[in-house]
Amino acid sequence: MMKNGRTIRIKSGVVNIPVVEHINTEKEFEASIFTEQYVQALDALNNLVAAQSASSKQSDNRVSPEESPNNIIAFVGERGSGKTSCMSSVAELLAPEKLHEIKSKYTAIEKHQFENIGIIDPSYFDQTHNIVAMVVARLYKTYRDFVEHKHTESGCFDVQRELEQAFARAQRSMQCLLGKNETTGEYDDVENLVNLSQAVDLKKDIANLVKEYLKFRKHEKGILLLCIDDIDLNISQADEMAEQIRKYLVSPQIVILLAAKLEQLGTIKSLHYTQEYETLIKQNRMSFDVIDEMTGQYLTKLVPHNQRIYLPTSEVYLNATLEIDGNTMPGKSVRQAVPELIFKKTRYLFYNSGHRTSYIVPKNLRKLCQIVELLQHMPDYENEKQFVNKETFKKYLFGTWVQDNISSAEDRRLCNEILEGWNNGMLNRATLTALQYKFKPWFQQIKERKRTASTKIERARLEEILSIVNPKNQEFNISVGDIMGVLFLLQQEHDTPEDRHLFFLINSIYSMALYESYDEMTEMTEMTERPEKDKDVKAELVLLYDPFEEMKLCDYNRLVAGRMYNYRLLNVIQRQREGGGISRTERLIDYETFINYLKGVVHEWEAFNEKRTTEQERDILKCKIR
Q1: CB atoms inside a 10 Å sphere around CB 101
Q2: Higher-confidence residue: 194 or 217?
Q3: Chain-wide mean pLDDT for the chain?
Q4: Pairwise CA distance, residues 348 & 509, whole Å
Q5: Which one of 5, 35, 257, 281 has the fewest CB atoms closer than 10 angstroms to its CB?
């Protein structure tokens, strides 16, 4: 996969907050990972503003729900996909001084001035403070800031008075209609009736307030831009907030940019309908299919499909260039830059295949920024003095990565047991035990599958697995090759996303463990001069295991257990017992068998080269050796 000409720019210290792209040139606009989303948003906004202007002219500036088109443009995506950053950047693009050459393509947008009062955070909403009140409060604060900083001109006091009266009317209407205690005895019955009659006009009062505010800002034909972030996160109030937006904030001079995960908002609405029609559902007079249909219709009415801006897929992120604090990272794309950065800081190796990006590379923009921030501030790995780098990365792998990629609580428990086995020097046994628990039916069927195996190779493999999982088999007698062989067979038959993530983690653990133990062994060899006799003993122990000599072995030799090769579980070069069979304790390589095996390979290759071209092509197709 080649880079796509886009650039992800990460600035240290701000990876956990929305980032506004300050785009000043058309080249920067085209290099953004959100280019398509910006174009879609501007196009949707242009159509919306044109429709609002037409509606306002036809109704002679009278505001009613029937006349005002839906004014919500939603930025839709998963958590951490960049919804808020994209929405904020679009709001930034609408500033008067921004990109006239691009906005000139959108005639309706170019005719209007957009007043942005900042992002409205739904986390402040509760049973007392609703979204309409928050919008009015933010509008009032912005107005007071202008007045206090004397950004108003002389002679505009009449305009200020009209605006303040509009604030008062809107506030009174909100208290009557949306307040929780509007009839608590503060007013007499007649006053309550008057207040309730005024509350019917809340939508009109909000529209008039916006009109007066824009007049105060000398933008009579302007549009108030409301940016509402992650409305679906406030589960208890999301349904009510969405209804208030739809009822009271639809106005020809208001445009709402909404960042949301619509699936979660739909789930909240579905729960509301389920509770509302609980009796009918229990009586089987209404099905959940009807609830789902009602939810879908509601979401379409709230946010029409042509006004939904879907965030980029992970492929756009992964094929973009990575830039940190102005410095371009090595690698043609993010999918290459992240593994290289991990290696540079920890010496742990992660690879991308030709058709799949390594699972260590986050498919989520926020998580990508977080791991890059984590690695970027580590010193480059030069020697064991940077062991903290490794420990920090392990905490990330077994903490954040496992939490994000392995959803099953039971599988996460198995991951922790494998980690504990690694820490205790019993990685092979811990991994085998975890795999036997996770894939218990598969292991239970081995004997039966061996009995019905159709080929000698398959029977040999299954026989080897039976030897590996024998309860009497000791920890020192389970090798890396054994575990890799079991994984090789399991991966052929278990290919769910959850299983692939688990297999990836186990393979990553072995890669890290082998590197660490080998690095430690070579450093010890370089630091310590040993007599030749001791070296001979050490070499012998690597190949021939004695349980009583186990403590003399380094971590690497214990982990390898004499066998890193032959992960396909075919014992072609192991020494045979005198009485027949293969010893699992004596892992001494039979070099005579090994040499004969290599001679056979060479002989077959020479025979292949002597054949005619047509015969070679036939053998190539048959053996798939091209």
Answers
A1: 9
A2: 217
A3: 81
A4: 10
A5: 5
Backbone angles phi, psi at 36, to 5 degrees: -60, -40
For 130-169, b/e burial (b = at least 16 CB within 10 A) is: bbbbbbbeebbeebeeeeeeeebeeeeeebeeebeebbeb
- Amino acid at site 148: E
The two structure tokens encoding residue 521: 């062994």
User: Quick check: 550 pLDDT over 60?
Assistant: no
Name the residue with tokens 């304790």. 585
Burial class (CB in 10 A: 0-12, 13-18, 19+), 85: buried
Helix or strand or coil: residue 220?
Answer: coil
- Rounded to whole angstroms, the Cα distance separating 348 from 351 reads 10
**How far, rounded to the nearest angstrom, does the alpha carbon of residue 142 sit from its chain's CA centroid?**
36
Is the pLDDT reported for residue 192 higher than 60?
yes
Pairing mode of beta strands 327-328, 321-324: antiparallel
For residues 197 and 139, the model is more confident at 139
Q: Give percent of the chain with pLDDT exceeding 70.
A: 79
- Distance of alpha carbon 363 from alpha carbon 330, whole angstroms: 19
Q: What is the DSSP letter of 9?
A: E
DSSP per-residue string spanning 510-562: HHHHHHHHHHHHHHHHHH----HHHHHHHHHHHHS--GGGGGGS-HHHHHHTT
Containing 10, the helix (H) or strand (E) segment is strand 7-10
Range list of β-strands (E), 216-374: 223-229, 254-260, 308-310, 321-324, 327-328
Judge contact between 80 and 367, C-beta under 8 A: yes
Name the residue among 417, 375, 385 with its Cα closest to residue 398: 417
Task: Please tell me the distance from the alpha carbon of residue 352 to that of residue 335, in angstroms, as a whole number.
Answer: 8
To which H or E segment does residue 492 belong?
helix 480-493
57: left (phi over 0), alpha (psi -120 to 50) or beta: alpha
Mean pLDDT is lowest, of 109-113, 224-228, 394-398, for 109-113
Residue 541 has pLDDT above 50, yes or no: no
Q: Write the CA distances from 102 to 43, 74, 94, 339, integer angstroms.
A: 11, 21, 11, 37
| Contact (Cβ atoms closer than 8 angstroms) between residue 138 and residue 228 | no
Residue-wise pLDDT tens digits, 438-481: 999 999 999 998 888 888 888 888 888 888 888 877 777 788 88
Tokens standing for residue 110: 């170019």
- Nearest 5°: phi and psi at 76? -110, 135
Best CA proximity match to 168, nearest among 126, 188, 198, 129: 198
- The secondary structure of residue 239, as a DSSP letter, is H
Q: Count the neighbouring beta carbons within 10 Å of the beta carbon of residue 539.
A: 10
